[in-house]
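Exercise 7. Predict the joint structure of the components listed below.
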Amino acid sequence: QLPILRLLSCPGTVAADPRREEQPSGSAETGSEDKTPKKRFSEVQKERREQAQRTVLIHCPNKISEKKFLKYLSQHGPINNHFFYESYGLYAVVEFCQKESVDSLQNGAHTPSMSTEAVIPFRSRYFNLKLKNPSNQTSQQSHIQCSNQLPPSSKKIFELLRCAESIDDQLNSLLKEFQLTEENTKLRYLTCSLVEDIAAAYFPDCTVRPFGSSVNTFGKLGCDLDMFLDLDEIGKLSAVKTAGNFLMEFQVKNIPSGRIATQKILSVIGECLDHFGPGCVGVQKILNARCPLVRFSHHASGFQCDLTTNNRIALKSSELLYIYGALDSRVRALVFTVRCWARAHSLTSSIPGAWITNFSLTMIVIFFLQRRSPPILPTLDSLKNLAGAEDKCIIEGNNCTFIRDLSRIKPSGNTETLELLLKEFFEYFGNFAFNKNSINIRQGKEQNKPDSSPLHIQNPFETSLNISKNVSQSQLQKFVDLARESAWILQQEGQDRPSPSSNQPWGLAALLLPSIANGMALARKKGKKPINETVKNLLESIKSNSAENSTNTHRK
Ligand code: GTP
Ligand code: MG
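Solution:
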């Protein structure tokens, strides 16, 4: 009996809802292969942030007339955009054209009074809509189209991959299904904006910015929401020069170190989210971590959130990955595929430990694409050399400068197919001298490993650090074994593709079967390669297993 097919989805916190609607999602901002973003990262962040500030989140009754709902809200001003989604109930995200409309809506809202419990008044942008007269409304309710926030089921993915025309088509389909939708992106920025309102109780003028895979173009539906509490704008020396001989400073508390300051700030914000933050549940303060954080679930959006501060380099890394993701349409397709492949084989995990992370996998793919001939991606050093004076960026003594204007980076002349790249990726890392060499995207070539950690991937900005220091020898070996086996499967596949009418998983689908990992481990133990027949039998059995897994979701 084969192990049940592991879901490929990125872990998420949104519960599988049986009422989930399937509908074509809006185009993702950083889009599919034909939609290369041209905007700078900072422009996207600014636009999205401003959009989120005009937006409200409303928990709606299940039975509601969309038309009446919109008419009611329009009393407060014109609506630019709205969508519904289901999480633990029905929710609406409503973006007004003007920020004043949000004030008007807040002025018309009241704090509920409870008979048994006390409530703490909080004027947020997260509302609860009640029907004054429920019986009157039910007759006019229309069917509400809900935007999907969940990753696709394994069954759907396998079906899509089976029906694809080529391996290239398979990789692009996978990307299209898993990438963040326009609505999901909006919900992420809105959640940050709502948390910012809470943090502003302590630190007026603070900013809460999303970073990591929510914004770096490599996010999959269901991935966590990394937030950065930015206090740097508060009390910065203003551009307005005051006349006279004096300079006015704020009185401030002195704290022994930056780390202690970060811990103190996150501690109070964590308390505040826990006690007063509408929709924030399961708040954990993880203040002794290398990078202190507050982890919580935002109940309404379903996002698992990690809030950090004093973490500006991570924001810069997100910008760098955004640029790499935008430079060539093959990058995201390959990264998504490798991440799904790693997830399917338990190379990545939700539990912190000796596993490789998605961030490290992305670096590995970028490095591989820098090594092609001609290169598909430029090295970080060459992006630094292209930078102008306005791009200069030093964070805590680390040079984080690189060009930010995408249009000034020359496109690659490399025309290799995704199928070839995937095969070569597995071959390359199946034979990489991990014992000697370090992966270095700054120079785009292997370097001698500076220490004895099994896997060494140089942190691109803090170059003395290894981003995969946690990875154990056995996890690295598992990665290498799987890479070799996958290269072998792809080679066999090329010679022996099933007919389109056959139900057999092929190409990428065959690589995502967990059974391959088992077959490989077994073969290694016995010192022989798995035979084609064994693999075919394993592939066959997926047909019965895949049906059982259509609603399975994994948490990170
Ligand atoms: P997901 O698995 O989809 O959440 O990918 P992610 O890129 O968001 O990874 P994660 O949530 O673990 O981390 C968020 C961001 O923190 C990453 O995108 C990086 O910018 C940064 N980061 C994570 N791990 C490391 C690390 O080991 N070293 C450094 N320098 N930065 C890291
Ligand atoms: Mg993340």
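Discussion. The longest helix spans residues 473-495.
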